[in-house]
Amino acid sequence: QVQLVESGGGLVQAGGSLRLSCLAPGRTFSNDVMGWFRQAPGKEREFVAVISRFGGSTSYSDSVQGRFTISRDSAKNTVYLQMNSLKPEDTAVYYCAASGLYSVLQRDYDYWGQGTQVTVSS
Fold first, then answer.
1. What is the pLDDT of residue 30?
2. pLDDT of 73-101, one tens digit each?
């Protein structure tokens, strides 16, 4: 089974930045659409960002638009989520996921990581 591995989470003050990384071993990375989702305690998992297989297209949720940037490095089999101007409401477990389709829908993603905690303090 393919396992996606997130890293880079931690504790940061509001207004600060973090960069999350997702390593996708065991898959042909260039053939995968990669997305980021997040889940806060007591909340449903929600879409954050997605990037196309070649990195030419990206989409973001309204709540992170202009603050977060998704990117990928095929040579390193890694996708990133640069998070700037962080807010307390960004606090959540962040998950990376892989899909065969360019989609914002969780049901279209076949492979998921275990998540990395991001905590933003005020």
1. 64
2. 888 889 999 999 999 999 999 999 999 99
Q: Give Cβ neighbours of residue 98 (< 8 Å, ≥ 6 apart).
A: 2, 4, 24, 27, 32, 33, 34, 35, 109, 110, 111, 112
How far is residue 108's CA from residue 105's CA, in Å, rounded to a whole number? 6
Report whether 34 contacts 47 (CB < 8 A). Answer: no
Other Cβ atoms within 10 Å of 85 Cβ, number: 13
* DSSP-derived 3-state class of residue 86: coil
Determine the residue type at 96.
C
CA 10 to chain centre: 14
E strands present in 1-122: 5-7, 10-13, 18-23, 33-39, 46-51, 58-60, 68-73, 78-83, 92-99, 109-112, 116-121
